[in-house]
Amino acid sequence: MSKDKKQEPLFRVENLSQYFNVGRKQVLKAVDQMSFNVYKGETLGLVGESGCGKSTTGRCLVKLNQPTSGQVYYRDKDIFKQTREEEKNFRKNVQMIFQNPHSSLNPRMTVKDIVGSGMKRHGVCTEQDVDAKVEALLKRVGLNRDHISRFPHEFSGGQKQRIGIARALSVNPEFIVCDEPISALDVSIQAQVLNMLKELQDELGLTYLFIAHDLSVVKYISDRVIVMYLGTIVEYSDAEELYRNPLHPYTQVLLSSIPVADPKAVKEKQRIMVKGEIPSPINPPDCCRFAERCPYTTDICREEIPTLREVSSCHFVACHRIS
Amino acid sequence: MDDTKNNILEINHVEFSFRTYGGTVKSVRDVSFNVREGEVLGIVGESGCGKSVTAQCILRLNPEPPGFFEGGSIKYRGEEITTKKDKEMRKIRGMEIGFIFQDPMTSLNPTMKVGRQIEEVFVGRENISRKEVKQKTLEILQLVGINEPERRYNQYPHELSGGMKQRVMIAIALVGRPSIIIADEPTTSLDVTIEAQILDLLKELQQKTHTSIIMITHDLGVIAKMCDRVIVMYGGKIMEKGTAEEIFYETAHPYTAGLIKSIATLDTDRNQALVPIEGTPPDLFSPPHGCPFAARCDFAMQVCYDDLPEEYRLSDEHVTTCWLQHEYAPKVAIMMREIEEAAHE
Amino acid sequence: MSETTKTVSRDQFKILGKSVEKMESIARPSLTFWKEVWRRIRLNRVAYFSLILLVAYVLLAIIAPLVSPYKFDQQDASAMREGFSAAHWLGTDNLGRDLWVRVWMGARVSLAIGFIAAIINSVIGTILGGFCGFYGGKLDMLVMRIIDVIYGIPSLIVCILVMVVLGPGIQSLIVAMVVVGWTGTCRFTRGEVYRIKEQDFVAAARVMGEPTFKIIIREIIPNIMGLLITNLTMAIPGAIFQEAFLSYIGLGIAPPNASWGVLAKEGAKMLQVAPHMLFVPAFFICTTVLALNQLGNGMRDAFDPKLRGTE
Q: What is the largest CA-CA distance in chain B?
């Protein structure tokens, strides 16, 4: 199932590339020619391991990085060519939840300032109402009113992350980039935050770009999923379809590597082995990036870059084996 | 009763605390368990539960001050090690009991070659020549799956990837052929494909060398894959212990049940809400009177807030510390997702 | 099932469930940043004692010459080179001047020059370092190269050259010290600003649409304040010592004005005959520098968030 495709996408990303010069003739291709759409109301999962470029992509979408090439369109307007008015509107409607709860809150500001300052700037409420609104938001994320004048260091990781969520919500955004929002949290707290994100989405009609490396979590929360490897998209489709029928070898490897919390199932599971380490994104080869580790590599894999092709309804794969 | 013949490590009523400005933080409050030869024992719990501090107590790795050992006994092969002098502890570290630290990025000395760091385990030992030490080092590099051991021996940590660094950590832990290895969240900072490789490696090595492993983690998936027996900790105390099957399929403690219910697995239905454990772990600066989990427990009773529960033995291995096992307590099905059904079952 | 050894009653066993207030509680008392810092300095006995000592010196510098029966340039031929006595607490110098008064007059000069030079250095260094760290680019490169050049030349030589050009006096002394002194703070501030700029909370402020100047004021400056103050405290002893040295070699304050350096110079000449004339100013220079360093160390620890909760 996928959200109504006939509607215009909220975000359109075309040939996004982010390259960094890290030395003489060494180019780190963090993101390489990525194109995808995000539709209103959906959760698009972006999954991959370290170095795949998912965080960089997310940061481009909120204008924290200026891409080397490519365009990002929000409601059909290029976000890197905005007027001041458009930018202000963008900042209100597009927010981010950060991965590390311990560095995403200003240690010298109280919770009230952290959550309330955005509200004041974007005129979401008046000066007198700020306190009440901050309290309401904190309550919504499971904290209480005596937390309002405390400082970040007094809270646990899970609580800090919830404060971060409250901050993102404070300006009534339309779209939130969730950059590994639960990776740094304990297991039982992850469930709290995930549930909360889902409820908020239903309540407020939010759209999420959910970036994570944990496939089980991504499957649970996403409508569609993009699998990234070394800066490129290797596969994307609806969430159910991806997990039911993973086509790209890397997706298959990822799925079989997840540690399953069930001793009997562990014994029965077939592991798909992958060789070696994750290669560096510096000066990647001009062929399939996964070729050197893939269990099914053939000659053409080492010569040509595979293109992203639609293999079945809304299921795209970039692999020479699948044609 | 625990089969005491096979125990190589016996931990009894250990208490460890830290002095802070607000008072004393009781990180480990009366923890007792045993480790047998050749088994993999998992200690699972969330941050602040005391699992790392407990493990570090065994080898006296906690900073003292501000930490201090409040009481209890730790016996290695029948011998009390809490009273040993530092010099004697150094003999135990690396050779008898090894330790794999969590973050290989920061646990390896960036200015020292890999080979030398592994050889450091042998510093100060008599009866072993330099040649033998290098030999052992190369062998262990091969054993942990590092190809071209001669080349890697001369490299610095920054030249290795994350997975390789962790293999080096495992090599350091194993080279002295210890009887026990304590692995403190060894795969938490690794990518999932590399994690799978490292866990496979550990399992293989464990079977080959018959070393006992104490596996500390917050990931129930790792527990399911690796461990024979499991200890569940919360708020500085042990909530439940048993075999892996008992913990997963005959869960007796609401906290363990909560952990299992809150995980999203590949089978979790998207339309079903996860069942989280509401709230936050207790601040051990002033630990609650009764059961540390009471404030977050769906089945908490007045007695849970008033008094610490006792241990109840459910089978040879399976022990749970919970008032629900008392004869006065109502029968509940703690694994049920809907609380109403559970409470009236 | 084991027998329970605790006395319990049946009505304690009704299911109540979780407690909403208890499950999110924070037990520790809340302290603001400055209260927390002060508390930690107080706990550090050496730093606290150093602070008290310095405050005492400052007070004495202000008050002692005012209440003393002697004037600092009052000569007394009948009481030359005398040791400690009831009439002259720290003895007299070779012209019969009371050393107690001269020490505290000298303290005014030395401490003032130390503080002023350090403050000017810090201000210049912070502003420049802040720009470099925040904006990077060509300005950053230019400033860093200038600093490299300055570091390459021994600072005392520069000081001496400046003094020779500008002539003796307190203003030229301060100018000389500032010319070389701003570099340390600049480098340090640049590093700190750069580090903080990369933190997620600054990114969050940008995503929230906060304009750059607001980011500098609300996000960056408060987070470097602590270390800036520490740096300032550590810069003062260097300045004091530098002044002492310059005066000692004759390039600083000219007699009959006193600074500790001048007193030391006069004392050195009389070392064989009246050693107290050297030891007294030397004692005060040393204890001041030591106290400032210890206070600086204590402040650095007090501002360090990682050390929170471990004392």
A: 69
Residues in chain A predicted with pLDDT less than 50, given as ranges, are 1-4
Is the pTM higher than 0.95? The answer reads no
CB contact under 8 A, A149 and C21: no
B304 in a structural domain: yes
Partner A contacted by C27 (CB < 8 A): no
CA dist., res. A105 & res. A100, Å (int): 9
Query: A189 vs B46: CB contact, 8 Å cut-off?
Result: yes
Tokens of A49: 């391991």
The CATH number covering residue C262 comes to: 1.10.3720.10
Q: Which of A159, A187, A257 sits opposite B262 (nearest CB)?
A: A187
Q: Which of B163, B258, B280 sits opposite A156 (nearest CB)?
A: B280
- How many domains does chain C fold into? 1
Cα(A142)–Cα(C147) distance, rounded to whole angstroms? 51
Q: Is-contact A124 A91, C-beta < 8 A?
A: no
Mean pLDDT score of chain B: 86
Whole-number Å distance between alpha carbons of A187 and A162? 15
| Confidence (pLDDT) at C202 | 94
Same domain, B255 and B339: yes
The β-bridge partners of A56 are none
Q: Kindly determine whether residue A153 and residue C305, on different chains, have CB atoms separated by under 8 Å.
A: yes
Domain total for chain B? 2
Domain-terminating residue out of B177, B197, B217:
B177
Residue C231 lies in a domain: yes
Q: Residue holding tokens 């810090």?
A: C122
Note the pLDDT of residue B231.
95
Which residues span the domain enclosing B108?
104-177
Class of domain A11-235: alpha beta
B248/A277 CB distance under 8 A: no
CA distance B203 to chain A (A): 13
Domain boundaries, chain A: 11-235
pLDDT over threshold 70, residue C308: no
Q: How far apart, in whole angstroms, are the C-alpha atoms of residue A168 and residue B223?
A: 35
ipTM metric? 0.87
3-state secondary structure (DSSP) of residue C86: coil
Nearest to C33 by CA among C214, C210, C196, C229: C229
